[in-house]
């Protein structure tokens, strides 16, 4: 039930000459304080239309509206505040959740059209950074949000698997590397070689030239170079997959930058045929002055293509392959300029769909307020971070619930879930601090708190022995504790839609926290298992909470253990 819609319809009966139903709905607000009602209609914007002052308008309309849904209305200055009939709303909402279960809140905005989401995209032969973790979990959650509102998301891992650094790596490997060492600890060893290359090149610049030559060999298909590159790529991908497996995330495509090697010529020709390319000290650029942007570098003077060239080819390839409704790029905000340039070049080239490309930037993960740096040689592997989270979770489970079966499995779900939840609960653009001990807490606004609340709700249902409800039962509840939970359930579809419109998983995470908090207040004050007229309705509320919390967590990419 959409009570905003129903109130809007009621108001529309009075206002149909002046306003459309949707305009009325858009004006309705949710008051910040419960004593100002459940829905408020502010009349400021009507003053011009009615040539009266807002308070007068509120009086006139307020007196004449009525609906069986309205328990009480209060006219406060320019506002009409509505208090709803709690039992009617709770009955309707609980009936919906009980029958729709995890489909509750689904929308069909997208008509199943495709939305490729460029996410994760770490660089081969380097450790996956915390920034790549952010891209992975934000991208995955956006994919779930888009799916819930009726799109078909396509998760793409645009691996950084091409570029001059591979020439450097091949050079370093041939000088100082061994197959055995790379096999043992691929990422650590490849990083060591890369770091050594730069250290040695400081004194011996001829090394840089050697690196350039090896990259040329690679581009020309020299078998030795290609074999090494293929091997490094595979080893790296194996390591990345360990992290993806633990996060329970998979991709529909792992076409990285190298995939576009044979697709760039066409791009360069296209730009050339549209007279967009100009020469700049031997290099080819697209001037973007009219967009207030630096020129985009398309081809270096030696003919080598760049990150930008590959992104242009990828954008065109995605449009052709998926005919997307939107194309998203979940990449840190330090690349905003790059994506502005990408869109500008595509617009210049005459592609109207450039407007459907959206860079989804995000902030940094910090330590004590400072930027995390992968100090030369010293690497924190993401896998180790996840393992530490998991073992901290295990410690807490040992204390709280030593007899729990499958403790290790649950600890992994809680530990990894905690890291993911922490990443997603902040507004995407905010920087945030990462201290593992704070992340894996069972209290406060954390993933484990939400999981724990849901597991408690599940245990209430097991005690009562009911997991299934008949939607034709009566679920009327009118106490204030239930009402706070009901309101959060009722606004679920609206919440999902906001998360979709703002590309903001934190809206879902906040919903989960608020619902868990409201549920805990309910459970502390309302006796669910006592024999009572409202027992079934109360249990239905518990059930609805377990379903919606689970769905919130699923959308975020966090598991919901039934017991913990
Ligand atoms: N590999 C890049 C990096 O780590 C991110 C790639 C993002 N995706 C893209 N299509 N440019 O910075």
UniProtKB/TrEMBL annotation:
Record key words, sorted: Aminoacyl-tRNA synthetase, ATP-binding, Cytoplasm, Ligase, Nucleotide-binding, Protein biosynthesis
InterPro entries noted in UniProt: Arg-tRNA-ligase, Arg-tRNA-synth_N, Arg-tRNA-synth_N_sf, ArgRS_core, DALR_anticod-bd, Rossmann-like_a/b/a_fold, tRNAsynth_Ia_anticodon-bd
Alphabetical list of Pfam families matching this protein: Arg_tRNA_synt_N, DALR_1, tRNA-synt_1d
GO biological process: arginyl-tRNA aminoacylation
Residue ranges annotated as motif 'HIGH' region: 122-132
SUPFAM superfamilies reported for this sequence: Anticodon-binding domain of a subclass of class I aminoacyl-tRNA synthetases, Arginyl-tRNA synthetase (ArgRS), N-terminal 'additional' domain, Nucleotidylyl transferase
Any one GO molecular-function label of the UniProt entry: arginine-tRNA ligase activity
Stretches assigned to the Arginyl tRNA synthetase N-terminal domain: 1-84
UniProt KW Aminoacyl-tRNA synthetase keyword: yes
Known EC number: 6.1.1.19
Main localisation: cytoplasm
Catalyzed reactions per annotation: tRNA(Arg) + L-arginine + ATP = L-arginyl-tRNA(Arg) + AMP + diphosphate
UniProt key word Ligase: yes
Residues in DALR anticodon binding domain copies: 450-564
Domain of life: Bacteria
GO CC term (a single one): cytoplasm
Location(s) in or outside the cell: Cytoplasm
Signal peptide as annotated in the record: none
Entry similarity comment: Belongs to the class-I aminoacyl-tRNA synthetase family.
Quaternary structure note: Monomer.
NCBIfam families with a match to the protein in the record: argS (TIGR00456)
PANTHER family with a match to the protein in the record: ARGININE--TRNA LIGASE, CYTOPLASMIC, ARGINYL-TRNA SYNTHETASE
Protein name: Arginine--tRNA ligase
High-level lineage: Bacteria, Bacillati, Bacillota, Bacilli, Lactobacillales
């Amino acid at each position: 039930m959409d009570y905003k819609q129903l109130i809007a319809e009621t108001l529309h009966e009075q206002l149909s000459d002046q306003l459309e139903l949707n305009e009325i709905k858009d004006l309705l607000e949710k008051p910040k304080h419960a004593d100002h009602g459940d829905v408020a209609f502010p009349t400021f914007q009507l003053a011009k239309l009615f040539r009266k002052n807002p308070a007068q308008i509120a009086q006139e309309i307020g007196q004449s509206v009525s609906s069986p849904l309205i328990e009480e209305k209060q006219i406060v200055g320019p506002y009409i505040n509505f208090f709803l009939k709690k039992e009617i709303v709770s009955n309707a909402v609980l009936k919906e959740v009980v029958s729709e279960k995890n489909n509750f809140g689904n929308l069909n905005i997208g008509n199943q059209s495709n939305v490729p989401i460029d996410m994760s995209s770490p660089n081969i032969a380097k450790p996956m950074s915390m920034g790549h973790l952010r891209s992975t979990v934000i991208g995955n959650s956006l994919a779930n949000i888009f799916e819930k509102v009726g799109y078909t998301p396509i998760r793409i891992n645009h691996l950084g698997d091409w570029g001059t650094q591979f020439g450097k790596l091949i050079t370093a490997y041939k000088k100082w590397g061994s197959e055995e060492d790379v096999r043992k600890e691929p990422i650590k060893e490849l990083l060591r070689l890369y770091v050594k290359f730069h250290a040695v090149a400081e004194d011996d610049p001829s090394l840089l030239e050697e690196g350039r030559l090896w990259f040329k060999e690679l581009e020309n298909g020299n078998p030795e170079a290609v074999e090494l590159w293929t091997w490094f790529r595979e080893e790296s991908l194996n390591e990345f997959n360990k992290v993806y497996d633990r996060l329970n995330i998979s991709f529909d495509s792992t076409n990285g930058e190298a995939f576009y090697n044979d697709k760039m010529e066409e791009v360069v020709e296209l730009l050339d045929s549209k007279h967009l390319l100009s020469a700049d000290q031997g290099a080819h650029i697209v001037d973007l002055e009219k967009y207030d942007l630096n020129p985009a570098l398309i081809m270096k003077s030696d003919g080598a293509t760049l990150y930008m060239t590959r992104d242009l080819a990828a954008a065109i390839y995605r449009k052709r392959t998926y005919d997307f409704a939107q194309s998203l790029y979940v990449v840190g905000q330090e690349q905003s300029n790059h994506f502005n340039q990408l869109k500008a070049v595509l617009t210049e080239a005459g592609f109207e769909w450039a407007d459907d490309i959206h860079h989804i930037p995000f902030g940094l993960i910090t330590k004590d307020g400072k930027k995390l740096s992968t100090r030369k040689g010293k690497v924190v592997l993401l896998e180790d971070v996840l393992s530490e989270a998991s073992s901290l979770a295990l410690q807490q489970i040992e204390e709280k619930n030593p007899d729990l079966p499958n403790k290790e499995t649950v600890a992994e779900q809680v530990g990894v879930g905690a890291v993911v939840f922490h990443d997603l609960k902040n507004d995407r653009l905010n920087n945030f601090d990462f201290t593992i001990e704070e992340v894996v807490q069972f209290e406060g606004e954390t993933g484990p708190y939400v999981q724990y609340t849901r597991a408690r709700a599940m245990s209430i249902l097991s005690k009562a022995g009911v997991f299934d409800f008949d939607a034709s039962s009566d679920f009327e509840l009118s106490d204030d504790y239930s009402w706070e939970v009901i309101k959060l359930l009722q606004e679920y579809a609206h919440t999902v839609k906001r998360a979709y419109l703002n590309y903001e998983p934190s809206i879902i995470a906040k919903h989960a926290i608020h619902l868990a908090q409201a549920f805990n207040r309910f459970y502390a004050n309302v006796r669910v298992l006592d024999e009572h007229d409202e027992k079934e309705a109360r249990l239905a509320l518990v059930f609805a909470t377990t379903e919606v919390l689970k769905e919130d967590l699923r959308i975020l990419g966090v598991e919901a253990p039934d017991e913990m």
